[in-house]
Amino acid sequence: MRISVVIPAFNEEKNIAACLRSILDQKRPAEEIVVVDNNSTDRTAEIARGLGARVVKKSEKGIAHARNAGFDSATGEIIARTDADSRVPRDWIMRIGNIFADSSIDAVSGPGIFDNHRWTLIPFRLYTWAFIFLSGGVTPMVGPNMAIRRSAWERVRKEVCLHDREMHEDLDLALHLHRMGAKVHYNPQLQVHTSGRRALHNPYSFFMTYPLRLLKMLYAHRR
Fold it and tell me: Looking at the 3D structure of the chain, how many domains does it have?
């Protein structure tokens, strides 16, 4: 099966090369890598092209808009996604392919491991547990570490929300997949290393805005 990797990016010239090299250095290579340039003003797109990625321009700002543009543009049967400040292990794509060998699985996700800042795992896990509990057991999707079958994306594409300030786009996707009866698999062994920069550089947003946004999103999605 063909696997595409999508990376939304905004002004990521300091991170995009390391991310792309980790994707290029896979035991089982991806058929394509798509970097979505979400109005960057630096060398993000230039660096991505230089490393062989296909760059898609998305002028409308926001991670949900960028993700959707990348997913829509991807040609693979399986669409994997990570973030520009993340690095994936060498068996990441191989594991994803093995998981989707089960034709009943529509999407998969796993944890994000924060490099050098292990303490940030505590609030991350609290968010995850809170989401599962408050949503009534919905399997979470984690932004820098997910993959979805193209057929499932085409079914959920018009349902997902686009307002970044009102929801977490990865958890919003999980909610809509659950509503349509999709089978989402959470695999603790499918891990991605990410920077955890949001907790370090903007702790107010991470510890105050994020939880409030989670509650607001769940309230907006109540039946």
Answer: 1
